[in-house]
Amino acid sequence: MTEKTTILNLPEDELVHPGNRACAGCGLSIVYRIGLKALGRNTILVVPPSCLTVLQGLYPIAATQLPCLNVTFASTAAAATGVLGALRALKNKDTTVAAWAGDGGTSDIGLQALSGACERGEDLIFICYDNEAYMNTGVQRSGTTPQGVITTTTPFSGKAQIKKDVPAIIAAHGIDYVATASAAYPLDLYDKIVKAKTIKGPKYIHVHTPCPAGWGFEPRYTVKLGKMAVESGLFDLYEIENHTFRLTGASEKLLGKKRKPVADYFKAQARFRALDDAKIAAVQQEIDEKWAAYSPPA
Amino acid sequence: MHIIESGNVAAASGVKLARVQVIAAYPITPQTPLTERLSEFVDSGEMDAEYIPVESEHSALAVCIAAASTGARAFTATSANGLLYMNEQLHWAAGARLPIVMCVVNRGIGAPWTVWNDHQDAISQRDTGWIQLYCADHQQIIDTVLKAFYLAETVSVPVMVCYDGYILSHTYMPFDVPDQAAVDKFLPPFTPAYALTPGQPANLNTVTLPDIRPDVRGNMAPGYMEIRQNLHADMRDAIDVLADVNKKFETVFGRNGDPYIESYQCEDAEFVAICLGSLSYHLRDVVDILRSQNISVGVMGLRLYRPFPDQAIIDALSGRKGVIVFEKALSYGNQGALYGDIKAALYPAAARPVIHNYILGLGGREIKTDQLVEALKNSCTQADAIGDAPQWIGLKL
Amino acid sequence: MKKDTFGCRKSHSEPGPGDGGRTGSWRVRRPVIDPEKCIPAKLNKPACFTCWLFCPDSVIKRTIPPTIDYEYCKGCEICCEECPAGAITMVDETEFIKKEK
């Protein structure tokens, strides 16, 4: 691994314009702003419908400084394939192609095209910002909504099913780089995208992205919530590079240390209000078992 | 050079000669041999193109949409349910004004499953903003593919080149494969006004508000409705452009044909049969039989279905005693789509003919010459006895 | 709005600020940096810049001390929440309206 980026050497160049339509305290805005710094100007973006469509600006004004193709919901990774195909045909070998979709556009309607692109070995970076529901349409459940979460389509008792493990599904395609990241750890995200640019073939980065409006917390706590998810060991920062798993950054530092109780994370958000103490304890036990497997006793 | 090959190979040869840069396709009967031949061209190095074997038709058109947006000449092909699976992408390609060319190897659509020919697939997509050209033989297939790229790139509207599954796709016929040099003279490289390019940022197909609003320089930009009106206006202009393309094609290749309607024995005909695709050649035999019985009838094959060449229809059909529309598709609960279009076109005509509608050949039901003779003869001899409702040919109830 | 022949119209957007208008008007409270507490200001050299890192809206500049573009700052308060030195306070916008009057 090359030198880790710090706040002081993170590029100053801002590729996202202020005055866009994202909500105050939007986790995606942090992820996108940092992500575009990492991708740089020699990049073509492909974006399906999502909050990002709104953030990026309404015709005829664009909020971002990169060429971007808005595409249909199910077609993101296929469209990125088309950009790559055209670039190869036009003998352009150095432009990065990045697809940027929400969790619905990745785990649900976009999964088939993404699986196809991974299987074909397309040289693209697919970034999923996971705010754990369809936020742009008003907080409906998605495949990555965690169990128990109240959404507008799981209105009273919360989602019955568990969160779909998209990074594991993508890793099962045998691609060379799969990583997770979080809006609360922008430098870790930045370094992962920069690394992804150096790897040939499909790269997948899954970014945990707190959403004040959809999760039910004050906008000022976006970063706090993201950190709580990681520090409790619920959402882990990791890389699967050349098929080898390793924890990174804040998650790596948790190995052998005491993690914060997941109940604190749940209780800081309105969306988990249907979870009773028994269910929270069950999740805590799952986290403990997962971490026991990360660092088995000597 | 003349070769004897299938309609699918005629199409593939046209795509190769058009120097297509990105091909994406998903296999579906009866389109499959076309894409197989294209992958052979690419894999053998005969063709310098990217062949992308996608996981669905929706993705096939996604690849073409993105490739064309990035400045490459793009092609795909499909049939039946594959075309329907693309429906959302068809609208997207037209709305984004991308000059993609697609062969639609016409087949009936499920349920229930059928793999055989009719026109319901393409007809059901007539309002997607794509130009639709229909072919009646293999020479028309290869020539139309070349013309389609020229037309699409001139008016910035995608084009479907439609030809009958099996009847044309899998039968062998002699046809001329033009020289690459001649094709290069006819079809210049694709040069879009804007292609996605780092350093020239633009956000394409963004959310567009109901009303117009100023751009970053303060100039009022056209809005959603203006974008839609412009697509319609350019589609209408494409009717004249197609005639120009045909003329240019003739100067280079020495062959042509009417861009809108291919007529047989129509000069003096009191009655005219009209249809899409290869059926018009079948009807030529029928016309010959009826002419031998002193019935004044001819047949027209419509080559351009969208935009609809209404003036050409008026010029060709106004003043006839009767017009008989044969269709391998139906707008359920109403009538044949082509029938409705022709009736609408003839409404302002000074002398409106009697007009009949025959539905036939759905899901590959065999179309027998004697059935066609009987139907057409009835329409010509008892024109007033047949009503407006579609008549069915070959129905075995 | 006369167009050239086939000067086709499509949704082609160009980059610029303020697509959502002056989003500073969304703000109820304004983040104000206290240079007495702000780490880079106190050290008078590049340091910390946590507020710049986490600002979702690119409205904070990495200067000493950091500067905030109130034209577009939406007032999310993440900078105030994350500042390790407690150097950013949120001040009710009515205070500034009173001052302007």
What does this structure look like?
The complex is a heterotrimer of chains A (298), B (397) and C (101). In chain A, 37% of the residues lie in helices and 14% in strands. With 298 residues, chain A is α/β, with parallel strands linked by helices. Chain A is globular. Chain A starts with 26 loop residues before the first helix and ends with a helix. Chain B has 2 domains: 2-186, Thiamin diphosphate (ThDP)-binding fold, Pyr/PP domains (Rossmann fold, 3-Layer(aba) Sandwich), CATH 3.40.50; 261-392, Rossmann fold. Chain B has helices spanning 7-17, 32-43, 57-69, 80-85, 87-95, 120-123, 138-155, 180-186, 224-253, 279-292, 310-317, 337-346, 369-381; strands spanning 2-6, 22-25, 50-53, 74-78, 101-106, 131-134, 159-164, 172-176, 203-204, 213-214, 220-221, 261-264, 271-276, 297-302, 304-306, 322-327, 354-359, 391-392. A 7-stranded mixed β-sheet of chain B has the order 3-2-4-5-7-6-15, sandwiched between helices. Chain C is built from 4 helices and 5 strands, in the order ββααββαβα. Chain C has a domain at 38-100: Alpha-Beta Plaits (2-Layer Sandwich). Chain C has helices spanning 39-43, 50-54, 78-82, 93-100; strands at residues 12-15, 29-33, 60-61, 67-68, 88-92. In chain C, the strands form 2 sheets. Chain C has a two-stranded antiparallel ribbon with strand order 2-5. In chain C, 23% of the residues lie in helices and 18% in strands. The termini of chain C are far apart. Classes of the chains: A alpha/beta (298), B alpha/beta (397), C alpha+beta (101). Chains A and B meet through strand 1, strand 2, strand 3, helix 3 and helix 5 of A and strand 3, helix 3, helix 5, strand 9 and strand 10 of B.
CATH architecture of the largest domain in chain B: 3-Layer(aba) Sandwich
**Rg over C-alpha atoms of chain B, rounded to the nearest angstrom:** 21 Å
Helix/strand class of chain C:
alpha+beta
- Major sheet description of chain B: 7 strands, mixed
Portion in beta strands of chain C: 15-25%
Shape of chain B: globular
Rounded to the nearest angstrom, the distance between the terminal CA atoms of chain B is 48 Å
Question: Helical content of chain C, roughly?
Answer: 10-25%
Oligomer: heterotrimer
Biggest sheet statistics of chain C:
2 strands, antiparallel
Strand adjacency order, main sheet of chain C: 2-5
Question: What's the β-strand tally of chain C?
Answer: 5
Shape-level CATH architecture of one domain in chain C: 2-Layer Sandwich
Could you tell me how far the N terminus lies from the C terminus of chain C, measured between alpha carbons in angstroms? 44 Å
State which percent range the strand residues of chain B make up. 15-25%
What structural category do the secondary elements of chain B indicate? alpha/beta
Briefly, what CATH class of the largest domain in chain B? Alpha Beta
CATH topology of one domain in chain C: Alpha-Beta Plaits
